[in-house]
Specification:
alpha/beta, six-stranded mixed β-sheet, about 35% helix, His_PPase_superfam
């Protein structure tokens, strides 16, 4: 909102990067800098064509190459510069990074189960989800604050970071963030501004958002 309390009707599009080889192998990437596959680059190009239709005003991105290359596709279509920020990186997960899902469950079963229950867990000795939100959400908020009224910000980041950022911005308690579910490669979620703050309008979308009609009936 602006200084008068009026809603500025801004939107935030949180866009996950394209596919990587580690995604295909179900290998935990975290802050490891893994490039896109050719299929991932194709996903980024297709999604960028759609998102360009929203006429975004600004693009923020994680500096990890899988997000930076994804963001570059939208930049090339819109002419907007990309602002990279390491605060938008994926969760650092210590010893979990590089392990497959099956290896994590086998080696860190209790830790994995506690995380899935919504308990604060330093996966592999890494970051808490709340710490990820502490660094990522302010980056997004600062970017949104710079938008014109009615403007749209595209944030290119990672599945876990996007989930924690959404949870923080819409005011969900941390133990419920996992309920938001994941994002497919190159899918996105959309937050819209209301008198009560940010509201989740679209989640794990792969097409442009449609107006919601009669959402209470």
């Amino acid at each position: 909102m602006n200084g008068t309390g009026a809603v500025r009707n801004r939107k935030i599009v949180l866009w996950r990067h394209g596919q990587t080889a580690w995604n295909l192998e179900r290998r935990f990437q975290g802050s490891t800098d893994i490039p896109l596959t050719e299929a991932g680059l194709d996903q980024a190009r297709r999604a960028a064509r759609l998102l360009a239709g929203l006429r975004p005003d600004a693009i923020l991105a994680s500096d990890l190459k899988r997000a930076a290359v994804t963001a570059a596709e939208l930049s090339s279509l819109t002419g907007l510069d990309v602002t990279h920020d390491d605060g938008l990186r994926e969760t650092y997960a210590g010893d979990w990074q590089g392990l497959t899902h099956e290896e994590i469950v086998a080696r860190y079963g209790e830790q994995y189960a506690a995380w899935k229950r919504g308990e604060p867990v330093r996966r592999g000795g890494g970051e808490l989800e709340t710490e990820v939100a502490d660094r990522a959400a302010p980056v997004v908020e600062r970017g949104a604050d710079k938008l014109p009224d009615g403007g749209t910000l595209v944030v290119v980041s990672h599945g876990g970071t996007i989930r924690t950022t959404i949870g923080r911005l819409i005011g969900l308690p941390p133990h419920t963030w996992e309920a938001l579910g994941g994002l497919s490669n190159c899918s996105w979620s959309v937050l819209g501004e209301t008198v009560r703050g940010w509201r989740l309008l679209e989640h794990n979308a792969g097409s442009l958002p449609e107006p919601v009609l009669g959402d209470d009936d």
